[in-house]
Write a structure and sequence with these properties.
The protein is of the alpha+beta class. A seven-stranded mixed sheet has the order 1-3-2-4-5-14-7. Strands 8-9-12-11-10 form a five-stranded antiparallel sheet. The protein has a two-stranded antiparallel sheet with strand order 6-13. Helix 3 packs across helix 6.
Length: 255
Amino acid sequence: MSIFTGSSIAVGDYYSMAANGQAYVVNAANLTTAKGKGINPIAVIFCTTTSSIDKALGFKNGYALALKEAAGKGNRFAYRTTGSGNDHQHQYPPYSEVSIYNLYLQNMDGYTETLDIYGKSTRANYPAFIKCVEYPVIYPKTSSGWFMASSGQWYQIFITLGGMEPNGLSIVNETQLIWNGMAKTAADNINSYFKKTGDGNYDLIEIGCHYWISSEWNDENATSVDFDSDTHLYMYDNWPAKKTAAIWVRSSIAF
């Protein structure tokens, strides 16, 4: 991987790829110049550290959020289509237990969680994961490829790109984490990074967008993030709709 300009990788830079497959990191001020050289952004960087698992796999530089929806604007998919079960090993109820709350927000292993499910012989039962992994944007071979972000990764997206204050996060009824009245602010802040890539290169996050998180709540429920029309920004278990609910999916990538 090369840095197009400068000597470091920063949140808000763009994970990009040249026509020959070479990976680049490009800052916003140099996007036009990079595009002129055939280097195009595919995701915006939201974290410049990675989990111990991902480091061991060679992904040491950071994580980035895809510029577009994984399967077209507004299309929705179930976490799993039928039944219930422990789909991988990260389940987190209730948030009121401080140790669980911290584990949930520190879980940066969306790649591993996604592979746990995408690698199943029954993966056809998990359409949201299929769409995240098979997001039709070519990526550098040195990266992880596309996956569904975990609870901690979405938390980082909200903090670093969305501009949310960690101390502003509240726990409600042991199942909801909420930034009161901040849905539009977070969406606008994240979208500001998308818009720098130019028209046609991104799908905006809108009020009402509701995305799956790879991390489970329990056998019947997974967790999700919601830029809700009630003005609040949520991370919560998806009860009562459960894992079979059809909601949005947006991919991430490690590099």
